[in-house]
Give the backbone structure.
Amino acid sequence: MPRAVDGTKRRSRRKKILKQAKGYWGRRSKLFRTAKDAIAKALTYSYRDRRNRKRNFRALWIARISAICRQNDISYSKFMYGLSRAGIRINRKALSNMAIENPEAFKSLIDEANAASRVE
């Protein structure tokens, strides 16, 4: 009787990869070698894009803040400079939400930033 080598370990390793590749198109979901390559590529992309998502959201928040600032005749950079001069420490996500949900409060921040940036 032949000796079994690496039977269950091999099967479980392959099943794990094929389970991860479920939903992929064609050979990528059926054959171990192509599924393994597809999973490796997908994990690389997901790792990269988890970092890029943070970048994209920051850019979105800055664009929103900038748009509201332009409506109130101040540039984004002057607004942020004024906030730092006034000692107001608030992150861009909160500023973006405030600009959308509570424009009156954001307008008061713009006024404070203007006042602080004028004083030299």
Summary: The mean pLDDT is 92. The domain at 9-118 is CATH 1.10.1900.20 (c-terminal domain of poly(a) binding protein).
